[in-house]
Amino acid sequence: MAQVAPDDFSRYETFNLLKTPYKKVDSHEINVDILYPKLLTKSPPTGSPILIRFHGGGLIAGSSLFPQFFGHWVLELAERHQAIIVSPDHRFLPEASASDVMDDLDDLWKWTNTSLSSYLSDETRAEIKPDVNRTLVTGDSSGGLLSILFSLSYADSLRATTAAYPMVDIMGEWYTTKFHKDFFGLPQFPESVVGDHVAKVKEEEARTGKKVVVSSDPELERAPILFSAIQNGLYKEYFSPRDDRLIPFDRLDKGARFPKGGLFVWHSVDDSICPIDGSEKLAAKVKELQPDLPFTLAKRPGEHGFDGDSKIDEDWLKKGLASLVQAWLK
Fold it and tell me: One Pfam family from the UniProt entry (predicted)?
């Protein structure tokens, strides 16, 4: 993907953008961005389909509208089918835990079911109306992990799932063990990058008596914390073994299943941030435990984020999406 300035929102020029809090933690508002095509002047009587999209950034960095992470194909899909995109922020590690992030996802789904319709009615003079019963979920990288976890939580309410190069094997050696990891030609970041950041957070919390909450990083200033966390295998510190919502493979082994409309995962064979073996492990697990699920794992050339400028009519993407889109819209 070509480099994009953090404040270059030109890719959204054919969409109307709305932003609103979907929850508050103490006094900190956590926002969700609502995007709908400008060509969608009025929803049909049954409402417009919904595309819930989780952004990447390792659960540590990025933001909902960070353009570098927002693939053109998502916007194309929404525009072609006149869908509403629901793209939330969430709390970040290491200030929060993975359990906190899952709480945010649960609260987002509650907000989508109870407040999205009235919010859009107020903002659009009742012209735009969502159909929550037709919801597709997508995400990339850590957002791919979240789309998978979210789908396992609400399989009976969602139509289908996609995940791009997901951090699905989050308790695997890559994310939990310290060793030299080369990606994007970057140096090895010392563990002190995370340690020093955590020390500053604790100092501020002691000084103010309030917990520090961070849920957006629009300039990607937290990237060194992300890289250090991966290279030094620190993710195990934030995923509690007592929370059975957090590990996809454990959830599948305990009976959780994906939405019946299907699962489409794509991953580059050369991914240096999130190795493809996690997605291959997921493919084997789905084949074993949910063999009737329409499932595709597309293995592609390129690096992490290779699909940023991909179009939905490219053969590999068109084929992978076909049955899922049908299940989503019917």
Answer: Abhydrolase_3
